[in-house]
């Protein structure tokens, strides 16, 4: 694997060390309009044909460099959030490799409360928060539960959840790591600020995983390209999702 990567955009192209993609971003941006919720960034890896998993698991889609970029974003985040299906899909960590410092809050969103918590590898010092409707999250104990108003089917108000994360847990930067259902619920509600999308150099095919386009919001929403990096065959794309964002941290 390469030790340097090329930033293709913004122009002009330049080489940077492979481990430094997204390492020095100003997140959240200083001069942003404060909507009363955390700054929300989504990070996902997908195949060339838009699939986000192979045999139901995301592990293995991205390269070593993709995992490093994920860690670079996590290192900035106050909390890392996933949907319950992602936790049910495979064992995963939402923490930092360096266990000496503070860890981002690990957040799982659920309507059913069916969470195989053994699948979550929590490093020392990482706290878990389960967000869902009151009757469901109560069973995880007061330290680990954030109850949010929900529809009769259990779908919680994500805007209220984000607002509570900000006011009750001091989350200024929220990193969302999927899956597609949670990502697009946030995007279609206008609650996501940026999308970091890795295009892994592989085609998964029609029988595996789920195409990203199947979960696009019914109303197309604009995405404005902020940066592109190329590492071997793998592309790292950064998009701003809110038209009024005036971030200028392209590095
Ligand atoms: N390529 C990648 O970067 C990547 C990243 C993550 C995941 N994945 C893959 O994506 C797949 C899982 O994604 P997915 O789209 O099926 O599911 P998901 O987004 O991980 O989870 C969906 C679940 O989250 C809960 N949820 C989401 N929004 C909610 C709301 N507003 N209120 C209450 N609960 C809410 C519900 O949990 P309950 O069902 O408990 O009610 C819902 O069924 C797996 O195959 C995983 O490997 C890929």
What does this structure look like?
By secondary structure, this protein is of the alpha/beta class. The chain has helices at 64-76, 84-89, 134-137, 158-169, 180-188, and strands spanning 4-9, 14-17, 39-47, 79-83, 92-93, 105-109, 120-121, 128-132, 145-147, 173-176, 194-200, 224-231, 234-240. It has an 11-stranded mixed beta sheet with strand order 2-1-12-13-11-3-10-4-6-8-9. It has a two-stranded parallel sheet with strand order 5-7. Strand 1 and strand 2 (14-17) form a beta hairpin. The radius of gyration is 18 Å and the shape is globular. Residues 246-251 have low confidence and may be disordered. NADP nicotinamide-adenine-dinucleotide phosphate (NAP) binds next to strand 3, strand 4, helix 2 and helix 5. Residues 44-46, 52-53, 56-58, 61, 82-86, 89, 109-112, 114, 132, 154-156, 158, 177-182, 185 line the site of NADP nicotinamide-adenine-dinucleotide phosphate.
How would you briefly describe this protein structure?
This protein has five helices and 13 strands.
Gross morphology = globular
Mean pLDDT: 91
User: Looking across the biggest beta sheet, what order are the strands in?
Assistant: 2-1-12-13-11-3-10-4-6-8-9
Give the proportion of residues in helices. 10-25%
- Count of discrete alpha- or pi-helical segments spanning 4 or more residues: 5
């Amino acid at each position: 694997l390469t030790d340097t990567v090329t930033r293709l955009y913004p122009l002009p192209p330049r080489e940077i060390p492979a481990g430094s993609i997204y390492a020095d971003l100003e997140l959240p941006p200083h001069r942003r309009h404060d909507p009363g919720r955390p700054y929300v960034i989504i990070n996902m890896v997908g195949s060339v044909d838009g699939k986000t998993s192979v045999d139901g698991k995301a592990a293995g889609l991205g390269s070593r460099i993709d995992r490093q970029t994920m860690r670079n974003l996590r290192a900035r985040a106050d909390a890392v959030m996933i949907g319950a299906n992602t936790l049910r899909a495979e064992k995963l960590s939402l923490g930092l490799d360096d266990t000496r410092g503070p860890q981002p809050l690990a957040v799982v969103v659920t309507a059913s409360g069916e969470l195989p918590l053994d699948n979550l590898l929590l490093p020392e010092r990482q706290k878990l928060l389960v967000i869902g409707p009151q009757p469901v999250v109560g069973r995880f104990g007061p330290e680990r539960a954030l109850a949010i108003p929900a529809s009769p089917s259990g779908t919680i108000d994500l805007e209220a959840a984000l607002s509570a994360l900000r006011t009750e847990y001091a989350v200024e930067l929220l990193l969302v790591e999927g899956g597609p259902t949670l990502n697009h619920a946030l995007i279609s509600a206008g609650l996501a600020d940026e999308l970091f999308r890795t295009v892994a150099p592989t085609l998964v095919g029609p029988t595996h995983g789920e195409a990203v386009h199947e979960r696009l919001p019914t109303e197309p929403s604009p995405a404005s390209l902020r940066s592109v990096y190329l590492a071997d065959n793998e592309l790292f794309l950064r998009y701003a999702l809110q038209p009024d964002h005036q971030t200028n941290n392209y590095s």
